[in-house]
Amino acid sequence: MRLEKFSMGIGDRFARQGRAQLQALMRVREAGVTVVPVWNKSHREHGIIGSEPADVRREADAAAQALGWTASHYVDADHIGMKNVDLFLAASDFFTLDVADFTGKPADPADMDAFVRRMERFARPLTVPGIEQPLDVSRERIRDIAGKFLLAVREAGRIYRHIEEKLGAGTFVTEVSMDETDRPQTPVELLFILAALAEEVVPAQTIAPKFTGRFNKGVDYVGDVGQFAREFEDDVCVIAYAVREFGLPENLKLSVHSGSDKFSLYGPIRDIVARHDAGLHLKTAGTTWLEEIIGLAEAGDEGLAIARDVYRLAFGRFDELCAPYATVIDIQREKLPTPETVADWPGDRLARALRHDPDCPEFNPDMRQLLHVGYKIAAEMGARYLDALDACEETVASHVMANIYERHAQRLFLPA
User: Fold this and answer.
1) What CA–CA distances, in Å, run from 12 to 20, 60, 84, 118, 340?
2) CATH code for the domain defined by 6-287+406-413
3) 3-state DSSP call for residue 278?
4) Beta-carbon-side half-sphere exposure of residue 23 (alpha carbons within 13 Å)
5) Phi and psi at residue 311, in whole multiples of 5°?
6) Helices 225-246 & 187-199, crossing angle to 10 degrees?
7) Strand partners, 10
């Protein structure tokens, strides 16, 4: 199974917006670029929603059939490990192997020594085509990288072989994720992570490192865009070099996690990808759920009542909801309006506060981040929330489609 050049992870918390999401990618395809959809949902999200991987498969297949989508589509077992991978085997054909928890933990010293010996030929100022200055590589640096990442790569190999044994070689797409760590990986570190993956015979088709800067949920990138662009381009060059040097899959590409709403990065990413004729996987999650809330608010009546109630309850359960996402949100609580204030807002005012339009003076990124992690509230509403989505389907779907197409896919995958 070979993942296409461009792909987009389209998380859908409540499995109601598959057709609207796919309609957005159909518009991109009509413009001349194929971006294949990858419906992604993590074990944590399934636990909060009360869903299971088979629900995602049904949504994806139904959307593709209903719209006559003839390109590929995938279902991602998002951020899985050995403890939960078996739950996803029957429904998934894309597996994101999350080994971030194993980074920074040293492997067996003998294993590290052997890896350093095998990599010694690179222990010099290393010229990588496309990177202006030679990479600073020494034997000591290779050993330091092995100490940080070799155990994580070994774990990726263990998970991969387990999936391969159950499903068969070549029947699924493999992504390796190390993004949920405290420190970004440098291009030099990425090079030797890829070397270790090749030795482990993990045929990764996408790799998700942690990039410089902050990728907070539901809002724009926080950091030096220029520095990010330089590192991203170096990573693209390192991947091309590693494919040739280590025999990794030729379609190996970067994956940008928490990639939704990072509008300031889309232009530089698009230009770099085009310049190097590289592939890209952008993983989004949560942005569709927020469009549901915006659509309900604008629909008025019960939809608006639900949107207000979700905010009121999320405001009161701030610590509980934010704790699991502490590393990917930055909310200034003093900038959150009180639930009493929001109760007086009409639907369009609430929508403007939540819609990611940085030029709108009423946009509130703190409020948006809180509701991004507040989907548990809607899940607890059960039928009340789902029935409202059905009742307001046309309004909600139009927001979901426009968001994925206009704010995301169009900016990132179509020429400027």
Assistant:
1) 11, 10, 20, 44, 29
2) 3.20.20
3) coil
4) 12
5) -65, -45
6) 30
7) 284
Measured between alpha carbons, how far is 184 from 73 in angstroms, rounded to an integer?
30
Q: Which of 5, 29, 9 is nearest to 287 (CA)?
A: 9
pTM (predicted TM-score): 0.97
- Block means of pLDDT (10 residues each) for the chain, 416 residues, are 98 97 98 98 95 98 98 97 98 97 94 98 97 97 97 98 98 95 93 98 97 96 98 98 98 97 98 98 96 98 98 98 93 98 98 97 98 97 98 97 98 94
Compute the Cα dihedral for 256, 262, 263, 268 and give only its sign.
negative
Distances (CA, A) of 403 to 28, 353, 356: 13, 15, 9
The Cα–Cα gap between 163 and 1 comes to 14
- Strand partners of residue 175: 96, 206
Place of tokens 């994806």: 60
Distance, C-alpha 252 to centroid of its chain: 16
Q: Which of 163, 2, 11 is nearest to 80 (CA)?
A: 163
Pairwise CA distance, residues 384 & 395, whole Å: 17
Delimiting residues of CATH 3.20.20 domain(s) in the chain? 6-287+406-413
DSSP 207-242: EEPPPSSB--TTS--BS-HHHHHHHHHHHHHHHHHH
